[in-house]
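**User:** I keep going back and forth on a fold encoding question. It is easy to fool oneself when nobody else works the same problem. Could you pick a protein and write out its sequence and tokenised fold? Could you put it straight underneath, so I can go through it closely?

**Assistant:**
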Amino acid sequence: MRGLEIRQIKLVKAIADIGNLTRAADSLNISQPALSQQLSELEAYIGRPLFQRTKKRMILTDTGESFLTQGEKVLNEMRHLEMFVDRYSMGETGKLRISLDPTMTLVWLPEVMKNFRDLYPNVELHIQHANDSLAEIRARNIDMAVVVDCNETADLEIVPLYDDELITIMPPNHELYSTKFVTIKDCHGIDLIYHMDLEKSVLYNEWLKPNNVELNSFSHVAQPAAIIDIVAAGFGVGLAQRWTADGAIKEGRIVGRPIGEFGFPMHWKAIFLKKQQRTFFDDFIRFIQEQAKKRRYTSLI
């Protein structure tokens, strides 16, 4: 034998699944003597028996079980490779319309788009923002939305993407620099830069207003990246996703502090309708998850 071949993994799997050489040979469309010969050659190559021959059944030995475990991994990878080749050669086409929350970081987007384009060169990718993502999905105006949390419903599938944290950002010379975390009381008299209309926000209605916090000034800036630049220029204190702000923190342009002693976690998820074609969805989601695993945050303190 010159080396292992895919067909040899398939024959071991067939014998293990069926337990009988004759029926396994039928499933592989070869004769029983031919299958016995190929198995003997493989066992001779490995130097150990893969099966224990009994009157009732062919049973995997420890060596056989180890061989099949590794072999099934190879078969799975081959199936994935065949799927990729089929998609590419058939010129798979389509459209994937995704709504992204304007407050989320887009640091991951370029690499995700590149990976998606490599896998689906003929699929149109539309990145947009829907004011009411759930309604737009149900109306089939978009295919998927990335949102912070979402209550489960019968018609929607929800897939966790990654966890982030909303943090307070400020210039390096700000008076709150010395704090380990920012509390509601610390917000008295600050110049706040925020991405939402203040009086419609959870921040105002559940935190600032009940605690009678009076700001020195408020600026509504809808673009998170712009908030970072404005804060870095010394115009106040802002709130940002940690993944969005991490580059500027690392560069020393701004500093970040947790909101409260235990932080303010943000759980980002993908949502889409159940019972629909999911190939595009699965891969786009997987690419985001892979980028999230590569994060290496700069310390806030």
